[in-house]
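Sample pair:
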Amino acid sequence: MLAGASDLMAVILGLLLSSATGYVLAAYHRGDPRSGEAAMKYYLLGALTNAGLVYGAVLLFGLGATTTLAGLAGALPGADSVALVAGTGLMVLGLAFKLGAVPAHAWVPDVAEGAPAPVAAFLTVAPKLGALVALGRLALTLPEADVGWRALVAALAAATMTLGNLAALGQDDVRRLLGWSAVSQSGYGLMAVAALGRSDLAVAALVYFLAAYALANLAAFGVVVELRGRTERSAYAGLARARPILALVLVLGLLSLVGVPPLAGFGAKLLLFGAAVDAGLAWLAVVAVVNSVISLAYYLRVLAPSYFEPLAGPVPVLGRWAGLATLVCGAGVVALGIAAEPLLEPLSVARLLPGSRRDWDDCFPHPRRCVTV
């Protein structure tokens, strides 16, 4: 619902439904203090930012006299600049919460550590997919000259990826490390949003990045789930000797998040960097390259002991279904990376929103008529 929203009311509804269920899932382990703490942080941040998003939608409705994206695209140019900036800022804040982006990112590492491992995998992937597409659609309806949303999104992208990577460097808890990694990945995704409207690569970069990130992150969390929630970095010592296939999947997932060829993350990062440069945001591409190098350091802190240190102890696993799901995600990381070039052509003609006035009229209120993401 969030990703497919063509109306601010649908954005609000999708955000609230996913948030309310996420709070319950994060607190599922009621007897674990870490789970309770994660759920409370998630809930309190969500209550604040979701309320802000609703207020922002009210402001945009007051300015445009409609909540449809089609109507706002035609009504917002020339509107009161103060109200327009305030409404846009509040909407971006609410969507940043779902993304796990600065300044509403604090819940992500706590949920990754305290929630049940399958829930942590879900909550660090699914909301991000919906929120990034919703933010991209919203950005394309806003008058850039009046709001300056591109500079805002680019600044959030740089701050999010930098904070996420720097915070992950000192983590010895693998799940918390993956949480901060999810924060940094939100920053990379925001690069595609910042390039929308200026680069023909932006939509393709956004869609391909979301697919690559989802597979890689689920593969990494899948290993954690299969290892029955092992969370200390020291517990991964010698994993390649005891469970070589799981260790290989972990390598594929983490190196894909870095952007190492021929994995899916390499094509995603290449498209993101190209879109940023094409949109006149070369400085953001440089920041992203530096951050990608930094991220390699903390991923290797998990991978190196798995291969070069003696086995820490017995390595029990959960079961064949969790293992099979993990293997599928690991294979998907490789397959998507190999298929990057064939996929680029259809993705290059995809659109987040219809491009012409006639397209708008034909599309809304019948979005199934449109060939859009």
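The chain has 18 helices and no strands.
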